[in-house]
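Per your request, structure below.
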């Protein structure tokens, strides 16, 4: 069996690496929490479908619900 001797700088580097790994994992957890919180806030502030002001083209067969009057269409009818 080999016995590996380590020096203080090697131990310190390994310890520092382990600490950085733990900090990175903690930071990843914080980022995930922040993303979930931001998503929840977006969902709370989103009016959603079916609320006032929403309009689907399918509801009126793709036509303007206000009955847009195309002036060029009138001119074409008059020329015939």
């Amino acid at each position: 069996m080999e016995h590996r001797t380590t020096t203080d700088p090697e131990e310190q580097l390994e310890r520092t690496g382990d600490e950085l790994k733990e900090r990175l994992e903690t930071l990843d957890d914080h980022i995930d929490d922040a993303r979930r919180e931001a998503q929840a806030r977006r969902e709370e502030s989103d009016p959603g479908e079916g609320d006032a002001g929403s309009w689907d083209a399918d509801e009126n067969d793709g036509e303007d619900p206000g009955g847009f009057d195309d002036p060029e269409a009138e001119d074409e009818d008059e020329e015939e």
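The two ends are 104 Å apart (CA to CA).

Regards,
D.
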